[in-house]
């Protein structure tokens, strides 16, 4: 069994698509109209046949409440792996990304947390 798709609730699909592609560097794989919203799937530029990240509209009240509460508690909505967290941290800082946690060593890992501007905290990790 493989993980092929994972979703992330976002407040605004257009804003999220711009942030995740232009700022973070993901690649748009699908952008399909689905009524009022779209099926937007992104992939890593290094693994374009890998797991897809769906930018899911948080239109449902339960989704809005979930997103609001985990963010308020400082809980990241998901985690992205990076080869060199300090390079990524500096690159994202230069692009105006706001961090809630600078790169911090935790055992054999180093993590950092940033705001995706779409209602989520995202954790980066270097193993």
Explain how this protein is built.
By secondary structure, this protein is an alpha/beta fold. The chain has a single domain, classed as 2,3-Dihydroxybiphenyl 1,2-Dioxygenase, domain 1 (Roll). 26% of the residues lie in helices and 41% in strands. The protein has 3 helices and 8 strands, in the order βαβββαβαβββ. Strand 7 and strand 8 form a beta hairpin. The mean pLDDT is 96.
Structural class, from helix and strand content? alpha/beta
How many DSSP H or I helices?
Answer: 3
Please identify, by name, the CATH architecture: Roll
CATH top level class name? Alpha Beta
Arithmetic mean pLDDT: 96
Please describe the biggest sheet, giving its number of strands, its sense, and whether it closes into a barrel.
4 strands, mixed
* Counted beta strands: 8
| Uncertain stretches | none
How much of the sequence lies in strands comes to: 35-45%
Write down the domain tally. 1
The gyration radius over C-alpha positions equals 15 Å
CATH level 4 superfamily: 2,3-Dihydroxybiphenyl 1,2-Dioxygenase, domain 1
CATH topology: 2,3-Dihydroxybiphenyl 1,2-Dioxygenase, domain 1
Shape: globular
> In percent, how helical is the residue content?
25-40%
- SSE pattern: EHEEEHEHEEE
Distance between the termini: 24 Å
Q: How do the strands of the widest beta sheet line up side by side?
A: 1-4-3-2
Pfam family, one: Glyoxalase
Keywords: Dioxygenase, Oxidoreductase
Protein name: Glyoxalase/Bleomycin resistance protein/Dioxygenase superfamily protein
InterPro entries: Glyas_Bleomycin-R_OHBP_Dase, Glyas_Fos-R_dOase_dom, VOC_core
